[in-house]
Design brief:
This protein is an alpha/beta fold. Helices cover about 30% and strands about 30% of the residues. It has two domains: about 140 residues, NAD(P)-binding Rossmann-like Domain (Rossmann fold); about 130 residues, Dihydrodipicolinate Reductase, domain 2. The protein contains eight helices and 14 strands.
Length: about 280
């Protein structure tokens, strides 16, 4: 199978994550990384030392598609130049609502004019988060959805949990749900051989957490969790008065750049099957 040669436009956190993901993929080839002239001399991560780094896409030999990792304010201009050069693009500018629709329509116009495919909204948010919200709304048609970003700094150590048998370390955070109730999240690192179900039950029965909605999550390393910078909670609650009180809750902590990069890579693999014009990202598998 022919390898896709992908260029990465921009070399911030997202650009680096995309380049690393391409290097790790057996069916992809990193055509090169396009950096701003002012940052062209900056060192690159060890894993990308062999990557070709240029200041303009025209300096690259073979490009089947380009991943636009430029800041949102510059994304449309970058996309326009690439499409004018008849290079298919994948992009994930952080836009919502009318701004996203206007952005998509303009890229669609340019892509159709030059007979080139483009995939927009191919990131974590917009992208995956939007589709998760839509899925929650399909499952619970009448209700309210709340999306809460949970930065790592909101976590705090809790001595009472550490004293529970089997717990090596713990972090806790809390916030108010849509109905005003207090929701608590406890992340625990277990000692070798500890039973997570037993530890979870002990935490929920602790006087500090008793009587409050408490979710317990197991993590491999508390130290690593403290270093992570992003988390998200998506909650969908059924409308008050319905016969069944449906609730859906998705909680996660992750590297948002790495997640966005994986989505962009999935979109890039779809490029050969796309017709000219702009399409909103849809996962196919």
């Amino acid at each position: 199978m022919k390898r896709l040669h992908l260029a990465v436009i921009g070399f911030g956190r997202l650009g680096q994550a995309c380049a690393e993901a391409i290097v790790e993929a057996s069916d992809l080839e990193l055509a090169g990384v396009v950096v701003h002239r002012e940052t062209s001399g900056q060192p690159v991560p060890e894993r990308l030392r062999g990557a070709l780094t240029v200041t303009h896409v025209s300096e690259l030999k073979q490009v089947d598609a380009a991943l636009v990792c430029a800041p949102t304010a510059l994304a449309l201009g970058v996309a326009r130049e690439l499409l004018q050069r008849r290079i298919p693009i994948v992009e994930c500018a952080s836009l919502e609502g009318d701004a996203f629709r206007a952005h998509r329509d303009e890229i669609d116009r340019i892509a159709n004019q030059h007979r080139v495919p483009a995939i927009v909204g191919a990131g974590w948010n917009p992208g995956v988060v939007t589709r998760l919200q839509r899925l929650f709304e399909i499952l619970i048609p009448k209700g309210q959805t709340t999306v809460t970003n949970r930065p790592g700094v909101s976590l705090h150590h809790t001595a009472s949990v550490v004293e529970i048998a089997g717990v090596s370390g713990a972090l806790c955070t809390e916030f108010r749900g849509t109905d005003g109730s207090l929701l608590r999240y406890v992340y625990v690192e277990l000692k070798r051989g500890a039973d997570f179900d037993v530890v979870s039950e002990a935490i929920r029965n602790d006087p500090i957490f008793l009587g409050e909605a408490t979710q317990v999550f197991r993590v491999e390393s508390i130290a690593a969790l403290e270093e992570e910078g992003h988390g998200m909670v998506i909650e969908r609650r059924g409308a008050t008065g319905s016969a069944v009180h449906d609730t859906l809750l998705l909680e996660g902590r992750f590297d948002s750049a790495a997640f966005a990069a994986r989505v962009m890579i999935d979109a890039a693999r779809q490029i050969p099957q796309h017709r000219p014009g702009a399409s909103v990202y849809t996962p196919l598998r």
